[in-house]
Structure formats: C-alpha cells, structure tokens
Design brief:
Layout: E1 2-3, H1 9-13, E2 17-20, H2 34-45, E3 49-52, H3 58-67, E4 73-75, E5 80-85, E6 89-94, H4 98-118, E7 123-124, E8 135-138, H5 148-160, E9 164-167, E10 171-175, H6 181-193, E11 204-208, H7 214-219, E12 223-225, E13 242-243, H8 248-264
Parallel strand pairs: 1-13, 2-3, 2-11, 11-12, 12-13
Antiparallel strand pairs: 4-5, 5-6, 7-8, 8-10, 9-10
Amino acid sequence: MRPFHMFGAERLRAIDFVLTDIDDTLTTNGRLPSIAYEALEKLCKAGVKVVPVTGRPAGWCDLIARLWPVDAVVGENGAFYFACEIRGGMTRVFVQSERERLENRRRLDILADSILAGVPGSRISADQRFREADLAIDFAEDGPRLDDAEIGRIVACFKAAGAVAKVSSIHVNGWFGCYDKLGMTQRLFSERYGIDIEREGHRVIFVGDSPNDAPMFGFFENSIGVANFADFREMVATQPKWITHQAGGAGFAEVADAILRARKR
C-alpha cells in the first residue's frame, strides 16, 4: 500500500464516482462526523457521484438513499442497490426474488440459534430486524469485542451451513447465494449509468477499511484504505493499493478533498 498523498493529481481529475464503505470508513467510533458528511455534500455539488457500498441493512439503506447526498446505495454486502430520485420514488433492485429471500430467512433464523449457542458472547446485530437478505452477528458494535478465534468460529459456522460469510469491522455477515459488493456494484453501473467499470475503472475510486471490502480492493486500481485498515491488514490477502494518513471519516474527507482540489486545478 502506498501513501495516498502520492496519488497523482491527473488521476484524481479523472474521478467521476466515489464508492465508499460506511462503518469505520465514513464513521469514526460509530458516529458520522461532520467532516465526512460535509465531504459527501461537497462531492455531490461538484458533480461527483457518491455510492456507499455497505454491509448495513435495507432499512438503513432506504433512509441513506433518500436523505444523504448520494446517488445510490449498495447494501447488505451486495444483496441489492437502492436509488432515490427527488420526487421520483425509489428504485430497488435485489439479487434474489422475494420468495428466495423468505426461504433463506427461514434458514438463517435456524443458523442464528446455532451460532449463538456455539460461540458464547456472540449476539445478533441490533440492526437485524431491518435486513432483507442476510444475518449479521455482532462481535464489536454493541458489546465487548470478541477475539479473533471467536470471530473465526462464527465464520466457520456460516460456512459449515453452506452460507457465505464476510467479516466487517463490527459484524460477521452471512447469507445464502452467490453475490458480493463488487457484483452488485458492477450491475448498478451497467443499469443506472450505462458504464462497464472493467473498462472505465479509472473514473472510480473505492474507499474502505475491512476484510469484506477485499473484492473491491482487488478490482479497483484506485482502491484506498483509510488508516485504520492497518488493524485488519494481517487478515486480508487482497489489500488496497493506497492508504490515507487519517482514520475513519477524516480519512474519507482526506480523499474527497484531494479529488476536489484536483478538479479545481
């Protein structure tokens, strides 16, 4: 990983889209600081489209798409994308049909009981009731942080049941089906913007912080980890190409400010 301050101004001027994780990338210590929200607004006003790509649930993503200065949201680690037009209603696109999601929810509810019994101290995420497609096991958000061995046991429980499992900075998210953040991001760009990001990736920056961002880090040449990614670097085989000096929301603002300065020049 190279220091982000070495990222060239010419490359920054080509950026039309900023993709960003939310937890510990936009947020700091669980809160969205004003510096990060202001960065979102400045990018929006400058004509740069911002798309959060997050593990957070559908209920949150509906609010984010409606109220934040963003163009769309990819949520639940790629289960869907939402986009809200001003006075034009909400577009909701899911990987799975409603019937598939209901059946998978039944299976995940059974799996949840097994994980809680098998990994003492694990707990269902407080935002689970707002989810459409996955199960979130909290290991750091609303209680003492579990150790790496316990987190590994949660992942193993998901995999033993035939589910996909991804580790964020606060949750282990698991689901049945073949999708991830990158796949839904590619679909969003194709359907909403008419862009093949394999060809147009130089126009996109992705900012993240944790292991579930690995598919995005690997795909985008302009992939950036905020400074706190260093907490996970031993857990992630595919790492970002660049890393900011600041952590969390300040790190995201560091990226946004660099883009805006380059565009002014």
